[in-house]
Specification:
homodimer; mainly alpha; Clc chloride channel; CBS-domain; three-stranded mixed sheet
Chain lengths: 657, 657
Amino acid sequence: MFSVTITSYIAPAAAGSGIPEVRAYLNGVDAPDIFSTSTLLVKIVGCIAAVSSSLHVGKAGPMVHVGACIAALFDNERLHKYHLTGKWLKYLNNDRDRRDLVTCGASAGVAAAFRSPLGGVLFALESLSSWWRSSLLWRAFFTTAVVAIVLRELIDVCIRGKCGLFGKGGLIMFDVTSTTIVYHLVDLPLVILLGVIGGILGSLYNFLMEKVLKIYKDINEKGIGYRLVLAGAISLITSCLLFALPWFASCQPCPDSTKEGCQRIGRTGNFKNFQCPSNYYNDLASLFFSTNDDSIRNLYSSGSHELFDQYSIIISFLVSYFLGIVSYGVVAPAGLFVPIILTGAIYGRCVGMLMGSRSSLDHGLYAVLGSASFLGGTMRMTVSVCVIILELTNNLLLLPLVMLVLLISKTVADSFSGNIYDLILQLKGIPYLKGHTEPYMRQLTVSGVAMGPLRIFNGVEKVSNIVHVLETTGHHGFPVIDEPPFSSTPVLFGLVLRSHLIVLLKKRDFLPTCRLTSAGITKAYSSDDFAKKSSGKGDRIEDIELSEEEMEMFIDLHPFTNTSPFTVVETMSLAKALILFREVGLRHLLVVPKTSSRSPVVGILTRHDFMPEHIFGLHPLLMKGRWKKLKFEGSPFVRYFRGLLLGSANNSVSSEF
Amino acid sequence: MFSVTITSYIAPAAAGSGIPEVRAYLNGVDAPDIFSTSTLLVKIVGCIAAVSSSLHVGKAGPMVHVGACIAALFDNERLHKYHLTGKWLKYLNNDRDRRDLVTCGASAGVAAAFRSPLGGVLFALESLSSWWRSSLLWRAFFTTAVVAIVLRELIDVCIRGKCGLFGKGGLIMFDVTSTTIVYHLVDLPLVILLGVIGGILGSLYNFLMEKVLKIYKDINEKGIGYRLVLAGAISLITSCLLFALPWFASCQPCPDSTKEGCQRIGRTGNFKNFQCPSNYYNDLASLFFSTNDDSIRNLYSSGSHELFDQYSIIISFLVSYFLGIVSYGVVAPAGLFVPIILTGAIYGRCVGMLMGSRSSLDHGLYAVLGSASFLGGTMRMTVSVCVIILELTNNLLLLPLVMLVLLISKTVADSFSGNIYDLILQLKGIPYLKGHTEPYMRQLTVSGVAMGPLRIFNGVEKVSNIVHVLETTGHHGFPVIDEPPFSSTPVLFGLVLRSHLIVLLKKRDFLPTCRLTSAGITKAYSSDDFAKKSSGKGDRIEDIELSEEEMEMFIDLHPFTNTSPFTVVETMSLAKALILFREVGLRHLLVVPKTSSRSPVVGILTRHDFMPEHIFGLHPLLMKGRWKKLKFEGSPFVRYFRGLLLGSANNSVSSEF
């Protein structure tokens, strides 16, 4: 509840895992405040509070967000404030370099959370980034290498001194290499089955999570009181389940191997005796009251067939599955990763126990494969999850099986529903631009969606006009057109940004008459003036007050206009325009007419024009036609079979090139 | 010489490693015959011959090419020939899906060569592919997972039965986990030094390789006789060195640990006694006469400080470095990877020996780090090399050190010269389109490079005109313009491809007069008619013979024209046009005029227009100006310092967005 309070009052943007927001940022959506200092602090403190309250949430997601926040701190404006300037800093003035930096920060977060430097790079590549260049791979790799070396040194220091749980593997690091793991071709069907069921469980998890999040969203919007009640209720349910259920579990004698013996709750140690006599342990309590990391390590350890009772494992699976779904929606920093790994590991053990002696595979291996299949079913990542699991278990011989299980569970789950981050983004209403085009987009031309009144400026424009347009619209870019007397016919000169116009208005360097400005005008401005402000920090048009006299003056926009905007002809198919928009990473795409008889610009496309909601709003018939967007139908099962039928239509877009 | 003979006579495209060609193909350059069946066969047979002749060449590169060839076999045309048809096959009809398939094949090749499934995926991502999508990651991952599982099963089978060297690790698989490797902060300076020297050695290697390849190119072009003499000379030099030098090495007593004892040359086993008495071995001969894989395994093995003499290691380093440079240029399938790993490993041991007791690091670890630094210095790959080395050594604890060494050596080498594949591509004259823009491109507009006579077709065009244009130019795409009476003013209708025009001419479905065709005309064609033929297999205009009468008839091009070509305005900067061209993966980019007074198209940009050679040909002043292209200067050292000076100019392009 402390965590919910600080999140609600100080930084609402810190709620949740943060991975969807980082993903959206790297896709080009600047959500307000996601990288502010207060978000960073609340994320760290709130995450510690939430995780240590035994709430069934993880810390990996918040660590990714923290990494991204720290990267975003290297912001020109903020560095200026602290008198940190330098020539190299100017590279951080543009969106692309900032995105790169945030990508590196997020990889560092993953690398730190899992002690998995390669996993961090691949996670960023597979799940976070929308654009990827070879040099970014190299930078992200450098970042995670530094993380790995620092971690390694800290562990070295901590093993000698006293750093609490840190040196002992407070971060996850499972060593299951003690025994060589053996598997053969006959085990493959079982592994495939594990993958299939994991995929189904994973997509069901996503489906239920979506429903629960929708309900929570309504509750959370009602105010801070409701949020606290919700958080309290979830905590209460969690506590009740954790403390009540172990009473029903049987006591088992302590294994000899453990050095620490069986401990009471609250102490460190893997085996908790709970209500049992000393030298006995309660297996359910051992699972519930260890830290998540310890539980996962226990589940992954090999040669431990006898440690857990069959019913305890099934009960803990149900509890973990249920709590994972209900806990995430709390307005507090909370990750999804660790609960999913834990639930998956328990699921794997379940399958192992149900198979009993019919399978020769180790139960620890079942747990690893269970985690993989559940991760594949919910998060739909393949390579990165595979590498993370490998780096966690430090056993490369597992690779083929882990790969197989991930592929199967992802394929199965993909037929039912989208991945969990997409669902969360959609619930938050963030206009995330997908990488692929939808079939119905081939039926439309760009002129069919670029609707709405177009605001155009002349090369030399009256100040009052600019102010009026900026005040009455929310657009961020405006086409600039040269008309007589500056050119013989109206021609498109370029695109001017709202933020640049505001800089010009603030400067008040206006012209008394409608004429071209002198060539030296640009010397009055430095490139810093036009540097992109960090999200939400730019000046607004309302803050600028101009006199009547100034309003009647003119600005020559020519020196401040981007003269090479990307353009498409109005008859171009929407699918192709989307490819251009997405691949080149645009924010504005000008639509020019096919014939020259009309105005030189007929529209402007932004991210919102490519959103399915917008397109279906303009063309409701598309929803009813053959090219119906599958997402708008009810049951995932119906979707599945329609998906099979329409598979060919989906794929044929790729033959455009 | 057998290998050179079959390569020269049957498939010249099979010469070399094949990785540069695969890279160029994935960049959009279809070199003739690189994926033909004869290339595949020659590559396999020739590679076996070249490697088994003790030539200092590798098999990894050819395996990548073989993988790509096998993937390219799934070609629609070829499958048709064998009556393999099916609905899913139509996805292979377009360039993008074929590229994806080839990428997967190449990853499978790497995965098989190094038994490194993740390394395969990352290699394809980092070094081969020019465009990358999330779904491709997932497909490549699936391919390498299958490779890993099949390999695993074959090894299982071979350990029981008799498969020669295969089950024993004929492919590389080093197990150096026997001892835990310890390193501390004090070892870091040494590791950094190792990286710096590795980077310098690597870039020197590239530099010398480029010179040698230029000389060889001249020799090889003179004919098959010269090629055979060259190959014979290199073989002779190799044999002389390998058989002569061990005579100067001292004999050492056989280690007790080895089961097989010290063997004569020609037998398997790690220690060769050469001229030494039995129970003694010659360390230089042991390095030279083992297979490369065995040598690398010996060098990587830990706790083996005493196995090799200091002078033997230095001599073998020099020999390996020299032979690596002179062997690659032979006209035979030959890889670069394994020689570089071996040379790097020996280099690492060298440094380890020179440090002597001043360093506590294991010499096996030195060898691993030496390989990493030399790979980083020559190939400039980071993540993939790191993963391959990790999967080879099966020891994740090495990760931080390997990463560090790779980063340093790559950074150092990057300041001197380009990576080895780029150099080879440049020597072959392949127009490889780089991912980044050069500073001078911002100074130019697209109209400044889109030169040459533009050939335009009318919407309804006379057959004789089409034939004439196709015969007199080599262009692959032509703008189609609608003029009166089909439109009020001339408008750009779209872009028609040469290959489609040839299909139309072959069909002879002409119109007697200049009018629009009926709507049903497209029914006469199936999509297969316009499917892209595999490289070099399409019909040529010379093969089509038309009568006088037919030449006077017309074709309505409207139904066969791409009506949504990507266009740029003539004033757009070349840098931005390149971004569009590269990111969207275009082959033709139409240049439209800014004002509508002239023809609706003023030029067409293709890959060649973006090549530095073309641009400097048109604008020689650029070479002399401040934006001088650094590549055109002599010494790598001069380049280095100019690179430092111009660093800011290079980077500022990235602030375009």
